[in-house]
Amino acid sequence: MSATAHKKAPNAEDIRARKGTEPLVSLTAYTTPMARLMDAHCDFVLVGDSVGMVLHGLTSTLGVTMDMMIMHGQAVARGLDRAMMVIDMPFASYEHDPAQAFRNAARLMSETGAGAVKLEGGVEMAETIRFLVKRGVPVMAHIGLTPQSINTLGGYKVQGRDKQADAVLADARAVAEAGAFSVVLEKVPQSLADRITSQIAIPTIGIGASAGCDGQILVVDDMLGFFTAFKPKFVKRYADLGPLAEAAIAEYAAEVRARSFPADEHVFADQTPSKGSKS
Ligand SMILES: Nc1nc(=O)c2c([nH]1)NC[C@@H]1CN(c3ccc(C(=O)N[C@@H](CCC(=O)O)C(=O)O)cc3)CN21
Ligand SMILES: CC(C)C(=O)C(=O)O
Ligand SMILES: [Mg+2]
């Protein structure tokens, strides 16, 4: 924390109150240094279960555990001062019943300091959302493409085209009515995202949705070009750091093989350096 006065991090009600004002900015983070980089620029930071695919090499989010989320949540919390932290509930930690959801949500919040949890599902999760909110757990909902349901959805496809649109709108209404303070809309048609945004009272956070949403989120490693196993159409690469990192690694490898690294300035002399000398 800096010695200068700092803004208090917003809470779930501050985020809810941003409906229809300036767009909410958010990214995912999984580590302390990345959280530090985005703290001054984001309204909230999501510790996403995408961590399993982005940092652990899993091929879906289904293998992500409570312990993984807690460890990454603690790391992100150490890097945040002004942005709110939201944490994903991992697959199978909340779907069984509201009591299971409360036990695991309470653990995520108390062990990481997150100000809210996020969970996937619409109409079918409304009862659980209501149960959590009434017991002091702010909930961000996540509808449209819900990656934890990849095995029943049959692919990471657009959700809510044509006849499906009314079902996604019903999901949005249900989570808002149940007390969610905001809702992520993932990979839904732009016109549907705009309709939902105008028809519900809580902020919509788009990912592959619409610039008309009340906010946007992206996976940080996607927008920085660190994650390249796949690139959803909704990802904009603001930087291409993966190839930059690889070039640096290749240069290091070549210098080690040529014995040009380490150089004089990276090694230590026999004698203790005299006062005023740097090494
Ligand atoms: N790096 C990363 N970025 C994400 O956005 C992300 C994750 N990981 N892991 C968890 C989920 C999975 N997500 C995904 C994954 C793939 C697509 C996708 O659109 N893939 C293909 C199309 C596949 C299809 O149509 O079946 C694409 O070409 O964009 C979208 C969201 C979103 N989340
Ligand atoms: C992409 C966002 C919304 C997410 O749920 C995640 O990163 O896990
Ligand atoms: Mg997620």
Plain-language structure description:
With 279 residues, this protein is of the alpha/beta class. It has a single domain (12-240), classed as TIM Barrel. Helices cover 36% and strands 14% of the residues. It contains 11 helices and 8 strands. The chain has an 8-stranded parallel beta barrel, surrounded by 5 helices. Helix 4 runs parallel beside helix 5, helix 5 packs across helix 6 (126-134) and helix 8 (165-178) runs parallel beside helix 9. The longest helix is centred in the C-terminal third of the chain and has 17 residues, at 241-257. The chain is elongated. The mean pLDDT is 96. Bound molecules: 5,10-methenyl-6,7,8-trihydrofolic acid, 3-methyl-2-oxobutanoic acid and magnesium ion.
> Uncertain runs with pLDDT below 50, 5 residues or more?
none
Apparent shape: elongated
CATH architecture: Alpha-Beta Barrel
- CATH structural class: Alpha Beta
* Largest β sheet strand count, sense and barrel closure: 8 strands, parallel, barrel
Total of domains: 1
CATH superfamily: Phosphoenolpyruvate-binding domains
**Helix content range of the residues, please?**
25-40%
| Cα-based radius of gyration, to the nearest Å | 22 Å
- The spatial strand order of the largest sheet comes to 1-2-3-4-5-6-7-8
Q: In terms of structural class, how would the helical and strand content be classed?
A: alpha/beta
CATH fold annotation: TIM Barrel
Number of strands: 8
The amount of beta strand, in percent, is 5-15%
* Secondary-structure element order, N to C: HEHEHHEHEHEHHEHEEHH
Distinct ligands: 5,10-methenyl-6,7,8-trihydrofolic acid, 3-methyl-2-oxobutanoic acid, magnesium ion
